[in-house]
Amino acid sequence: MAVSIRIVALTLITAAAVGAGAWAVTRYLNRPVRRPEAVASAAAPQPATARRIKAILHYVSTDGLRLAASERDVIYAESASEQARRIVEALLEPAPEGLASAIPQGTALRGLFVGERGDAYVDFNGSLRTNHPGGSASEILTVYAIVSALTVNLPAITSVQILIEGHEVDTLAGHVDLRRPLPNAPQWAEKGST
Amino acid sequence: MIIAAVCAARLDAQSPRAAAPYSVVSLEGRRTVGAAIAGDQEMLRLDELAPLLQVTVREDRAAKALTVSRGTAVVVLSLDQGLASVGGKIFSLSAPPARDGSRWLVPLDTVSRALAPIAGVRTEVREVSRLIVLGDLRVPRITVQQDPGGPPTRIAIDIVPRAAFTVVQEPKRLLVRFDADGLDIGPINAGGGLVESVTAADPLTLAIALDKDFATFRAATVPIDAASSRLVIDLTAAGAPAPSGLARAQAQPPAARPAPAAMPEALAALPAAQPPGVRTIVIDPGHGGDEQGTRGAGGVLEKDLVLDVARRLRSVLDTRLGVRVLLTRDDDRVVPHDERASIANNNKADLFVSLHANSSPNKSAKGAEVFYLSLDGLGAEARKMADGPESKPVPVLGGGSRDIDLILWDMAQARHLNESAAFAMLVEEELRRRVEMSPNPVQQAPFRVLVAANMPAVLVEMGFLSNPEQEAQLTSDDFKNRVVQSLFDAITRYRGRIEAQAASRLP
Hints:
The complex is a heterodimer of chains A (194) and B (507).
Chain A lengths: L1 H15 L1 H12 L6 H7 L9 E9 L6 E9 L4 H13 L16 E6 L4 E6 L2 H4 L5 H18 L5 E6 L2 E2 L13 E2 L11
Parallel strand pairs in A: 4-5
Antiparallel strand pairs in A: 1-2, 3-4, 5-6, 5-7
Helix pairs in contact in A: 1-2, 4-6
Chain B lengths: L1 H13 L2 E10 L2 E10 L2 E5 H8 L2 E5 L4 E6 L2 E6 L4 E4 L2 E4 L5 E3 L2 E5 L1 H7 L7 E4 L4 E4 L6 E6 L6 E8 L4 E6 L2 E6 L5 E6 L5 E8 L2 E6 L3 E10 L5 E9 L19 E3 L20 E6 L16 H19 L3 E4 L9 H10 L4 E8 L9 E6 L5 H9 L16 H7 L6 H18 L2 E9 L2 H4 L5 E8 L3 H7 L2 H29 L2
Parallel strand pairs in B: 1-12, 13-17, 23-24, 23-25, 25-28, 26-27
Antiparallel strand pairs in B: 1-2, 2-3, 3-10, 4-5, 5-6, 6-7, 7-8, 9-10, 11-12, 13-14, 14-21, 15-16, 15-22, 16-19, 18-19, 20-21, 26-28
Helix pairs in contact in B: 4-11, 8-11
């Protein structure tokens, strides 16, 4: 809600005065994609007493064709965008025992921005693409592990667009269309999985 | 010295390098806007573009932004990130502006996403032909295809949207003059037989250079659909009999002589008048070039495997089904997704089959899968298009309706989902008879290569290269031929279905 109010305010400023609007909007534009160092500092170890939420994250199922749900503790955040960032960072951590991660090794979060209409833009480093093994099954699992992490756990987020190094991309590995925000597609989760 | 060399190398790496300019067609005529490659992005020179769009540009160094304005309408381009604010909404761009000396370069998508909404005129970017159309101008897309068969030598010129033209015969060449404000000339695949070349003679004229053996020609037009038409020109050599039933133009007199553009008696003989069927099939071997696709544990590359299977399938379809078969690539090269769909759309293909091999993090995953498009992520407008027989206008990002055609093209597959599903079922049934299927044999996914295909389209995953046992199978002649036979039988059954449907509609 706080983010929405800021967005509305900045929009009005832009319409009212070109010069002041340019400055304000640019400040706003600087918000979405955080600098890598900002992400790194935010990911610093938290005290063991930090408040946590339960998040449902998805990993590769045992047959390698679907996503399997697993509940993980994620540090609580005040804002939706900050909570989204912490959830994605949790997804990038090693998978629970017995499951494999759908995210290629070396993948790091560069930034995350939640738009007005429930669309989230998640910016990763190039490893998400360069370390991806290819194949449509692997690509689908990677994409929907990310999409479901946000849409399943944060009702305010209804669709997710994956960016690489700050840019929109056609696909990760030649299959899934990433040019628009994707809604979750529960058919990629195992039956009985959340 | 080392530091200086490193600095020089960095500067060199960051300096934009020149690229072929874009042509801008407007009421004032045709002009060019400089282009450059910065990083891996194609960029346009903003100072050359701004006066054509009637916008002014100002750099706000404190805010690290470029402000582009026209009257009270303002667009803010962040200099730090590929983001723009248009009317209070945020749009992502493929790159932030780049500085080239004292001038600014902006990524190509800035035009349609950020500048078009505030431009003083209708603005349309045609990336493939490097054209920007300003204003309500008639700039038809022209593609030229020569039938490899013959004689006679047949040239088909597709005109989208349709435009009037005249065919004029001159010594050693035919001139096709279009009644338009400009031409958007697409791929020209012509040469051989009685045609030496097809080139643009001037901004509104195509010239067909003729071989010395040329004697006569005939020309006729047929509508392709409500918006497009096709001009078919048959060229006959001296001494060869002119095909009957068609209007005939005599050997050229010394002076230029206009020929009628449309000859009604020729219509019945032209391909577009044929009933529904499966006459052209486009096979799309996935990936290629640097985009290798997945790699098997034993080193098999997906791009090589699928090209091999595509060639085998083409050979079988050519010889046994008598249909025209085109591959989106017949060698090891990168083919952009849009170009793959364009090849199918521009050739009026009746089926599109994309061939792939799969991979999973779990090495035990195995089996073939058949996909058709899911509309996830394409939004409500795509679903509306899928529901109704007629396309609906789609609002453009940022307001207005300027890019309607582009967006419709981009969602072309939405209108064919039912037929794609029916074809996918046939492919699955035939594959199941010959190869192992995955537990999820027919699925829907938002696959990029299928979105713009304007015909029934499926993507076939033949098996998992990540599974060592399947990798060995997939590389065997026996397995490849099983897949080819399955696809051949599925296509044959689908053709029978289409023909039966057409027959049932006859009075």
